[in-house]
Amino acid sequence: MNEGPRPWRQTLDSLSVPNFRLFTASNAVAMTGTWMQRIAQDWLVLQLTGSVAAVGVTVTMQFAPMLAFGLFGGVIVDRYSKRMLLMLTQSAAALLSAVLAVLTLTNTVQVWQVWAIAFLVGLVTVIDNPTRQVFVNEIVGPRYLRNAITVNSTVFQLGALIGPAISGVLIVAVGSGWSFGINAAACLLTVLALTRLDASALYRTPTAPRQKGQLVEGLRYVVSKPTILWPIVMLAFLSVFSLNMPVLLAAYADHVYKVGAGGYGLFNTLIAVGAVAGALASTRRANIRLRTVIVSGGVWALIQASSGLMPTEITFGAALIVTGVANQFFFTAGNPLVQMSSNVRVRGRVMSVWVLVLLGGQAIGGPLMGWIVESFGPDTGMLVSGLVPALAAVVIALILAHRNELHLTVRLRRRGRPGEHWGGSTLSP
């Protein structure tokens, strides 16, 4: 029997954990800085080259390392202290952002340098992203994990809401360089926050000993569990086609509506407005079903495709807001389902597969969508970005219905204390 929606008063109950409040506050600043850098970086490349395809190459350079090395990142996450890894990765990200800021502010930056730094940031992400996903487990424990993942997603989207707006203003007023400098400072703030966490209150997870076959073990585990495998398959189509919005929105801002960097930032902000609303609404879910993940992905894709049919800038902006809402209904179902369906012993490797598909798919899709936009126009690109994943959702749903797997549901087991090991979740019809 299914539980009803969670009360609104429990929307942010994971923030009752002091360590998570500190981590979330620093994460909000860090995500704002990350989005500031991403918007400034993409627009800088467009200014230097005049090519939307070059923006797609930038996306590829940043996400290709995850495609090549992402699975090894998961092995590292399972072997070492999550807090230590995050401190190292955030320090490296701060250094790279600072270098890009200096190059840009001194007017010596060249496009190959932007690509090189984007590639190095991608290497950092190979470890940083799955570590960040799994570390939330250690901060809040199993009782608040579902809510904490949703809060994290909301914080990410708040950064996507604030960051592009600030970056757009800075680009118009003083250029891209200051956005990179602010992101460097935000990364250092994250390192400081990590040093201030109460280590005794963490829910420590066992580290995996070094041994052969760990990578293959993780992959076999992913393939063996429908609640992990099928959300990742759905994510693969969405990441290649639907998640390359920077390429599409750069084309709409520069070629269709001719609104410049400020308009580009505004378009990204509109998606984030919808995403914040979607993430907050998702906190009321009591159960997470496999069918919710697949249907949410298909609906998101269809709504995004409809953006390419909008006749005016106002209706286009409205479609972007709804796209953001649908985007979060997918991620706030898929990410928790994958995490809570996995045993803690292999969770780092499982989440590295999730992140590999999420970011590696964008590395493939960036130049692909750039080519489609330049060859057939932004409207066609937007249609393709939605229709292909929507078709994939229909096919996946038919396969799962045939196998009678579409009804799987995940619920949390409330157990565990700080310092104890704890496991995954239960599945029920």
From TrEMBL:
The record's SUPFAM superfamilies line, in alphabetical order, gives: MFS general substrate transporter (SSF103473)
Q: One GO molecular function term? A: transmembrane transporter activity
Return the GO cellular component terms, semicolon-separated.
Answer: plasma membrane
Per the record's keyword annotation, is Cell cycle included, yes or no? no
A Pfam family per the record: MFS_3
How does the protein's chain sit in the membrane according to the entry?
Multi-pass membrane protein
Q: Which UniProt keywords apply?
A: Cell membrane, Membrane, Transmembrane, Transmembrane helix, Transport
- Grouped into one coarse class, the protein's main location is membrane
> Which chain regions cross the lipid bilayer?
52-77, 84-103, 109-127, 148-172, 178-195, 228-253, 259-281, 293-310, 316-338, 350-370, 382-401
Q: Where in the cell is it found?
A: Cell membrane
Keyword Transferase present in the record's keywords: the answer is: no
**Source taxon at top rank:** Bacteria
Identify the InterPro entries for this entry: MFS_dom (IPR020846), MFS_trans_sf (IPR036259), TM_effector (IPR010290)
Which residue numbers delimit the Major facilitator superfamily (MFS) profile domain? 11-404
Indicate what this protein is called per its UniProt record. MFS transporter
Q: Specify the species.
A: Cryobacterium zhongshanensis
